[in-house]
Amino acid sequence: MAALLLFGKDPQKYCLNARFEIGRFGNEAGELITQDLIDGNLIQMADRVMNVLSSKYLVRPIHYEGMERVEPLEIPENGLREILYNSIIHKSYDGPDIQMKVYDDRISLWNYGKIPEGTTISEMFKSHRSMPRNKLIANAFFFAGFVDAWSRGFEIIEKAFKEAELETPTFDEEFNGVAANIKREVFYAIQHGARIDERTGKLIKPVDDTKMTPKR
Predict the structure, then answer these.
(1) Are 147 and 35 in contact (CB under 8 A)?
(2) How far apart are CA 5 and CA 133, in angstroms?
(3) Strand 203-204 relative to strand 195-196, pairing
(4) Sequence-distant (≥ 6) Cβ neighbours of residue 137 within 8 angstroms
């Protein structure tokens, strides 16, 4: 089953829940604007999700470094990709699809499957043992060069967001799974009057930014 999910031409024929749902919502979860359903094999899924997010759901504010135009994704790509890898590797495939909800001010990514028994979310940000739910899938991602075997995923996420001067995502256990909560600080700030410095790429907020704190 692991080989089929990782490399099969149509793995959803045998495991319907091996899919990734993306939805764009308004202010509330009841306001669905658009949606995508990503299927296919797991080894290519993170790339497919990143492509859809980049082209349809997230923004790339422009700035210049010398003569070169730079268009970084509003969310640090290495941190976001690590979150995607975690959701794919650690999902329990007897449960619902992975679900990502994109709002103006935040992103919520949920995958079915609890964290290892006896472990807390806060401990995942510290040095800890690698305890993948799906060992064969995790092993394939390791040999593909996507992840390492030292449980540094949460450290990589934290570092990526700190370097971008953005708030580190939070993680919660809910509905027998784990939810990653990512604030869309750049997009939300631009929507409320901020701009991107074309020389540095840094966010420049207006003088009155009291209304620019994204909701949780």
Answers:
(1) no
(2) 15
(3) antiparallel
(4) 2, 5, 6, 42, 88, 89
Higher pLDDT, residue 120 or 33: 33
pLDDT, one tens digit per residue, over 85-102 is 999 999 999 999 999 999
State the Cα–Cα distance between residues 89 and 135, nearest whole angstrom: 8
For residue 9, give every residue at least 6 positions away whose Cβ sits within 8 Å of its Cβ, in sequence order, or none.
41
Q: Using CA atoms, how far apart are residues 71 and 110, in angstroms rounded to an integer?
A: 28
Compute the distance between CA of residue 36 and CA of residue 187 in angstroms, rounded to an integer.
21
Amino acid at 149: A
Rounded Cα distance, 39 and 52, in Å: 12
Alpha-carbon torsion angle 23, 27, 28, 31, nearest 10: -60
Dist CA 104 CA 26 (whole Å):
7
pLDDT digit string, tens, across residues 154-193:
888 999 999 999 999 999 999 999 999 999 999 988 888 8
> Which 3-state string (H, E, C) describes 129-153?
CCCCCCHHHHHHHHHCCCCCCCCCH
Q: Which two tokens stand for residue 49?
A: 């999700």
Note the pTM of the prediction, 2 decimals.
0.85
